[in-house]
Fold this sequence. Notes:
Elements: E1 2-6, H1 13-26, E2 30-33, H2 44-54, E3 55-58, H3 62-67, H4 78-90, H5 93-101, E4 105-108, E5 111-114, H6 130-137, E6 144-147, E7 154-158, E8 164-167, E9 171-173, E10 179-183, E11 197-203, E12 208-214, H7 218-227, H8 232-240
Parallel strand pairs: 1-2, 2-3, 5-6, 6-10
Antiparallel strand pairs: 1-11, 4-5, 7-8, 7-10, 9-12, 11-12
Amino acid sequence: xxxxxxxxxxxxxxxxxxxxxxxxxxxxxxxxCLGDVVGYGPDPNPCTEVVSKIAFACxxxxxxxxALGLTDITVFNIYAREAVLWTRSxxxxxxxxxxxxxxLEDAFLGGWxxxxxxxxxxxxxxILSVGDARRAFERFDQALCFVGHSHVPGVFDLxxxxxxxxxxxxxxxxxxxxxxxxxxxxxxxxxxxxPRAAYGLWxxxxxxxxxxxxxxxxxxTQRKILAAGLPEFLATRLAIGQ
Length: 242
Ligand code: ZN
């Protein structure tokens, strides 16, 4: 089965549409989502509606929880906080309901899905270092765990001797005696200095992962951000992938 793994859409409809076109083109069988459907971007309702239709499974992200008033936003930076308050003011009841039903973690086809880290998922921890990854490997049983949250794609590879390696290749063939934590990057707000939308393709037969990048109409999204009265920084960062 070819599984498209999307994350951190952040209410960016143009980026999401570019990713969906690619998902169609490659003929993925199903889609799973790792959360942060909303927050930062100008289209929380259309993006939630699309995800609710296409995603077989979707776990909640910290920005989804923030939009629902379920997490403390005093730890958010000022831009994120402003965007949360705006998102709360426009999100429909139906979309609120959908996001509220998303669990914090989920199992899917021998993979584990979580927004930030399987280490206390409700604390929204990041997996940035080998040490973070090592702790995280102890908190799920599957060979594979898919995460988002940092908006930076990458793969942590745990070999049978217990060594953790960081892989940056766009395509990874999984070894059957290794375990992996795969960060699929962000659809709607990449932060690895590449402004193109990111998502992952997990081929369960080939036992491989491929990171896909798609250019999209950044200027339209930027215009919508400014028209919504959201902070200008949230528009400018999209053009540089930060
Ligand atoms: Zn995010």
